[in-house]
Design brief:
Elements: H1 4-19, E1 20-26, E2 32-37, H2 40-43, H3 46-63, E3 69-73, H4 77-90, E4 96-100, E5 113-115, E6 122-130, H5 134-145, E7 149-158, H6 163-169, E8 174-179
Parallel strand pairs: 3-4, 3-6, 6-7, 7-8
Antiparallel strand pairs: 1-2, 4-5
Helix pairs in contact: 1-3, 3-4
Length: about 190
């Protein structure tokens, strides 16, 4: 068992040091923001992967979610999913990962979902940063159309700009490891 408070505090520090930029930004949602969180600078670091893996796995257990696999839209979700799957393996638990392409390939199997996903699987959609929740909703749509059963959504960071509410209103429970308020950004 990890000390969640210490690990969350360290993840908070990493995000602030590596990922948060201040200025004038246009987000993927089209909204303007005085800050931008490039979470990949944290989620793709060795320490970030280790922290996100164990914190994410603990959050799944706390929530009572027992997915077969975790994943979401490439690229932001990828390191989050892989970190959680690796942490599960380290504890002797079976949990796989998958990634959802933004569009189907025009060659090979032409799949949108790559990795360890099969129809009928119980999954948790993961994200690095949630603002409006649109990327998670897009991932959910692909998974449902492919026969997946979505248990909920887990994000590293909730910007607290309506994504949680949009996902929960659509019937998908939402969890975040940290919020913009906890980073002092709200």
């Amino acid at each position: 068992m990890i000390d969640q408070d210490t690990s969350r505090a360290r993840l908070r520090t990493l995000l602030l040091e590596r990922s948060v930029r201040h200025g004038d930004f246009v987000l993927a949602s089209g909204r303007r923001s005085r800050y931008y969180v490039d979470a990949r600078a944290t989620t793709m670091s060795g320490e970030g992967l280790a922290l996100i893996g164990v914190l994410g796995l603990e959050r799944l257990a706390t929530r009572g979610w027992r997915p077969d696999a975790v994943g979401g839209l490439t690229l932001g979700a990828d390191p989050v999913a892989y970190a959680i799957a690796a942490a599960a393996h380290g504890r002797g638990q079976r949990l796989d990962a998958f990634t959802i392409r933004k569009g189907a390939k025009d060659h090979g199997t032409r799949q949108r979902i790559e990795g360890c996903f099969v129809a009928g699987a119980s999954v948790v959609v993961v994200e690095d940063v949630v603002t409006t929740g649109q990327a998670a909703r897009d991932a959910i749509g692909v998974l449902l159309a492919s026969g997946g059963r979505v248990l909920g959504v887990l994000a590293v960071l909730d910007r607290e700009e309506g994504g949680r509410l949009a996902l929960e209103d659509a019937g998908y429970p939402f969890e975040a490891l940290l919020t913009a308020g906890e980073l002092g950004l709200r």
